[in-house]
Amino acid sequence: MSMSKEIARAKLCLDGKEYELPVLEGTEGERALDIRRLRATTGMVSYDPGVVNTGVCESNITFVDGEKGILRFRGYDIEDLTEHCSFLEVAYLLVHGFLPTPSEYNAFSKLMNLHSMLHEDMRNFFSLYPDHAHPMAILSAMVVSLSTFYPELELDSTEAIDITVARLLSKLRTIAAFSYKKNMGQPIVYPRSDLRYCENFLNMMFHTPVNGYSPDPVITHALNQLLILHADHEQNCSTSVVRTVGSSRANLYASISAGICALWGPLHGGANQRVIEMLESVIKQGLSAATLIERAKDKADPFKLFGFGHRVYKTYDPRAKVAKKICKQVISHMTRTDPLLEIAQELEERAMADAYFQERNLYPNVDFYTGLSYRAMGIPINMFTVMFAIGRLPGWIAQWLEQRDNAENRIVRPRQVYVGPSRRTVAETLNVSTYSHPGKN
Ligand code: CMC
Question: Which of 232, 310, 317, 338 is catalytic?
Answer without folding.
Answer: 310
